[in-house]
Design brief:
By secondary structure, the chain is mainly alpha-helical. Helix content is 69%, strand content 5%. It has helices at 6-24, 26-32, 36-40, 47-50, 58-79, 81-102, 115-128, 145-162, 169-186, 189-193, 195-214, 234-259, 266-278; strands spanning 34-35, 110-111, 133-136, 139-144. The strands form two sheets. It has a two-stranded antiparallel sheet. The protein has a two-stranded antiparallel sheet with strand order 3-4. Strand 3 (133-136) and strand 4 (139-144) form a beta hairpin. The longest helix has 26 residues, at 234-259. It starts with 5 loop residues before the first helix and ends with a helix.
């Protein structure tokens, strides 16, 4: 393995180890995954980065790490180790911050995986080498990077709006945008030489972010393929809130059973006292 592959190897190795622990131990997974309430209310900002170390399944992990392995050497050899690390972590952080922007009112929203970081690697590579071929898994063809960037960006925007699946399209978009911006900041000349794929990625995401901030209701749309969004009654809202509190209490009690009450955080102790008073 060349010297430029060491960092990607370390990233892959650590991600495999953390994912294995998370799949084996649900509490471990819950500790490191991205969650809106945990970040905004409990100030557990490390989740913006640690969520990239855990994955929901082995298939999820293999897809991300294989993509990283196939693209990392080319990018790292071009930009250098330090800039490669910045792009990877910047994509991970940017992806989760974009998800946080969209789901700031959805406290139970959570996600896991390195997709934002991997997308940053993909899109920064396309920004620097727009003619590179992007292969599709299990299909023996490749398409130009610039075409992949346009199609993938539009598909991800549609995925966020329609909310049709359990894929973190928000992190994908945030990671892609971060990767392009970081690549251009490192090599401004790329903006002149490769302005078409760069603008084709940045402009749609920028417009989408503008509408997310100024008109967030556009995310609550229905179409011919998906059911109407359900409006909960007061009783349903109460039951959902109660269920959420019960799950939090179960997590705290489980932690006490395994590690002892002395290992609870201040926030967990506060919640335990609140639950005790309510009971």
């Amino acid at each position: 393995m060349g010297s430029t592959g060491i960092i990607s190897f370390i990233i892959i190795l650590n991600t495999v180890i953390f994912t294995y622990q998370g799949i084996k131990n649900h509490l471990f997974f819950e500790k490191y995954k991205f969650n809106v309430d945990k970040v905004l209310l409990q100030k557990e900002y490390w989740r913006l980065l640690t969520s990239g170390l855990v994955h929901v399944s082995w298939m999820h992990l293999i897809f991300n790490m294989l993509t990283l392995y196939l693209l990392s050497n080319v990018l790292e050899s071009q930009v250098g180790t330090l800039k490669f690390i910045i792009i990877y972590l910047g994509g991970l952080l940017g992806g989760n911050l974009f998800a946080l922007l969209i789901h700031s009112k959805h406290g139970d929203y959570s996600s896991a995986g390195a997709s934002g970081a991997v997308n940053a690697v993909i899109f920064s590579s396309i920004a620097l080498f727009p003619g590179m071929g992007i292969g599709l898994f299990f299909i023996p063809i490749s398409i130009p990077g610039w075409l992949f960037a346009i199609v993938y960006t539009l598909y991800s925007i549609y995925g966020v709006k329609s909310n049709r699946d359990n894929i973190g399209h928000e992190a994908h978009l945030g990671g892609a945008l971060s990767g392009v911006l970081l690549a251009v900041s490192f090599y401004p000349s790329a903006l002149i030489a490769n302005y078409i794929p760069i603008l084709a990625t940045v402009i749609p995401i920028g417009i989408f972010i503008y509408f997310v901030i100024t008109r967030p209701e556009i995310l609550l749309i229905d179409n011919f393929f998906f059911k109407k969004h359900q409006k909960y009654s007061i009783d349903q809202e109460y039951n959902l809130t109660r269920k959420k509190k019960e799950m939090q209490l179960d997590e705290i009690l489980d932690k006490i059973q395994k590690k002892g009450i002395q290992n609870l955080t201040k926030e967990e102790m506060k919640k335990l006292k609140e639950y005790s008073r309510q009971l």
